[in-house]
Amino acid sequence: MEHVFFPPLSRVAVCGGTHGNELTGVYMVREMQKQTMDKDGPVSVTAVLANPPAVDACRRYIDTDLNRCFTDALLSAPLTDSSPYELRRAHELNAQFGPKGSKEAVDLLCDLHNTTANMGLSLILYSLDWITLHICKYLQSKISSPVRVIQLNIPISEVYSLEAVGKHGLAIEIGPQPHGVVRADIYNMMKKAVDLTLEWLQKFNTGSIFEGGEVEAFTFAKSIDYPRDPTTGEITAAIHPQLQDNDFKLLQPGDPVFMSFSRETVKYEGEPLYPFFVNECAYYEKKIAFHLAQRKNLSIPTISVKRD
Amino acid sequence: MSSFSSCQSVREARRVAIFGGTHGNELSGVTLVHLWMKNGTEIQRRGVETRPFITNPRAVEKCSRYVDTDLNRAFTPENLSAPADGQLPYEVLRAQEINRMFGPKGSPDAYDVIFDLHNTTSNMGCTLILESSKDHFNLQMINYIQKALAPASCLVLLNEHPLLKYSTARSVAKHPVGLEVGPQPQGVLRSNIFESMREILKHALDFIELFNEGVEFPPCSVPVFRVSERVDYPRDANGNIMAMVHPNLQDCDWEPLNPGDPMFQTFDGKTIRYQGSGTIYPTFINEAAYYEKQQAFVATRRETLSANAVRKA
């Protein structure tokens, strides 16, 4: 099996409150900021609230979704007086943890999110990054409940989310949790995921060899919107009870997907795919009822740290 | 044999309103009222004028709970009588307008029944909320709904507490009834929750139709959960919460909480136990909107109310 070497990963950022009403990350970051970070160890961890005014207002965002502001184009465009708050903040975060794509960027940026969808613990990454895929594999091996890996295949320049600022980036998405609520079970799961990530980094930096193999991943295929009234644009159906809460269960043609308000069932037409982000609150305005993914096995090589 | 209870004569319930969007992000009610404003066939009954109504359209537009202040706390005597000028919060002006349209509160011209449709992030299932233990018409209607829904359950929360009671939009009517269905996140529409609320209203309107036709409903007992106190999260000196509802209590609305049972878990993993003197029945456990109202859950006690027989006057 191929063996790939990477330099040590010494600088890590953990971000919460990128969406101000996704509370697990907010409270995790506040708690991490209270504990004194071990600066003597091989890994220095900075915990930061990405969108403080949105956190104070307990809203997803103030002007625009912060987690759509990190494309190369948006980060390089000059700010003006009329730039939305979140675009300014994206430039600040890029200066603090990036710049995106440069050698000054933090080695790993971990962004903590919640969803109203029943996705359990999901790890979202953008490309075939062996470091983040090994972190996923490690979490899967240590956590008994399902840990899903979601891969969105977008070229790094077009990746719009915060974790793209780091050399390696990972979003930890846990649900279901209503926005504006912090559940202890979800918090405990997030803490475990973050602790295990830091544990993996410690092991990596001190020379552990992580065996390659296969990681099952869900790769984004397409999105489906709600049925809407053609005049008003208002939704005319809800996610069907048989699809609701069934993220990652194979959806076949003919399976019910929506139940209209007049109690008619709308059935899925298309190739068999895996739904996720089913009934996420924040996606109503983005015209997404759910995403669909293919399931693939990704091969990853053995990795370890490069000793100078 | 128990003491004789006479049949209570109650004026027929001719004017009924269904309020949705009192909180703009509680979507079952918003969706049902929009649906019925377009086509009200489903809510029509003989002898009843049923009016669906969006109480807080600006909050519905923003998909937020409220714009300036909580509409469902705004119907106080002070607010309703305040001079209407440009300085009043949006919801206070709105409360005055609703009081004119469906009240005035306390007068003989007020609507007979108002159903106010709400959702909660708490695992409360189907809940009916009463403001008086002596409204026999409401008690009989609830009894009818519960029997019609069985074996599915529909529990009753009674908030008659002199300090914890609040001035709701529905309090404008002679017979106010709150419908609270959860769990559902704010801003999300779940099909099962939507259909449950729809089913409750169907039976409620059936009851009103039967009542107006002269049917007499015999005495009955209605088990309720009476609000006794509000319990807040432990907070630090800055008012930030220091703990979360404990996993053992989370989602356990209506189940007994005994002294010594886990109640909260701090962010660094410690358990805080309930130290009260007796068993309570918590509800509204971890409702999103109540963090700012200093409420982790509401403590209730179980009671059985007796409803007199009722018949149309």
From TrEMBL, chain A:
Reaction catalysed by this enzyme: an N-acyl-aromatic L-alpha-amino acid + H2O = an aromatic L-alpha-amino acid + a carboxylate; an N-acetyl-L-cysteine-S-conjugate + H2O = an S-substituted L-cysteine + acetate
Residues binding Zn(2+): 19, 22, 113
Entry's localization field: Apical cell membrane; Cytoplasm
Its membrane topology: Peripheral membrane protein
Cofactor(s) this protein cannot do without: Zn(2+)
Cofactor mode of binding and number, as noted: Binds 1 zinc ion per subunit.
InterPro entries xrefs: AspA/AstE_fam (IPR050178), Aspartoacylase (IPR016708), AstE_AspA_cat (IPR055438), Aste_AspA_hybrid_dom (IPR007036)
Catalytic center residues: 173
Keywords tagged on the record: Cell membrane, Cytoplasm, Hydrolase, Membrane, Metal-binding, Zinc
Catalytic activity, EC: 3.5.1.114
GO terms of molecular function: aminoacylase activity; hydrolase activity, acting on ester bonds; metal ion binding
Enzyme class: hydrolase
Domain called Succinylglutamate desuccinylase/Aspartoacylase catalytic: residue spans: 10-196
One family name in Pfam for this protein: AstE_AspA_cat
The family this protein is said to belong to: Belongs to the AspA/AstE family. Aspartoacylase subfamily.
Protein name, per record: N-acyl-aromatic-L-amino acid amidohydrolase
Organism whose genome encodes this protein: Sphaeramia orbicularis
Organism phylogeny: Eukaryota, Metazoa, Chordata, Craniata, Vertebrata
Gene name of this polypeptide: LOC115423217
UniProtKB/TrEMBL annotation, chain B:
Domain (Succinylglutamate desuccinylase/Aspartoacylase catalytic): residue spans on this chain: 13-208
EC code: 3.5.1.15
Cofactor note: Binds 1 zinc ion per subunit.
Record: active site: 180 (proton donor/acceptor)
Enzyme class: hydrolase
Pfam family, one: AstE_AspA_cat
Domain AstE/AspA barrel-sandwich hybrid: 221-301
Presence of keyword Nucleus: yes
Residues the record lists as binding N-acetyl-L-aspartate: 65, 180, 290
Chain positions recorded as Zn(2+) binding sites: 23, 26, 118
Domain of life: Eukaryota
Cofactor: Zn(2+)
Gene3D superfamilies: 2.20.25.160, Zn peptidases
Protein location: Cytoplasm; Nucleus
UniProt: substrate binding residues: 72-73, 166-170
MF GO annotations: aspartoacylase activity; hydrolase activity, acting on ester bonds; metal ion binding
Alphabetic keyword roster: Cytoplasm, Hydrolase, Metal-binding, Nucleus, Zinc
Keyword Nucleotidyltransferase belongs to the record: no
GO CC terms, sorted: cytosol; nucleus
Family the entry assigns: Belongs to the AspA/AstE family. Aspartoacylase subfamily.
Designated name of the protein: Aspartoacylase
Species whose genome carries this gene: Sphaeramia orbicularis
Gene name, Swiss-Prot/TrEMBL: aspa
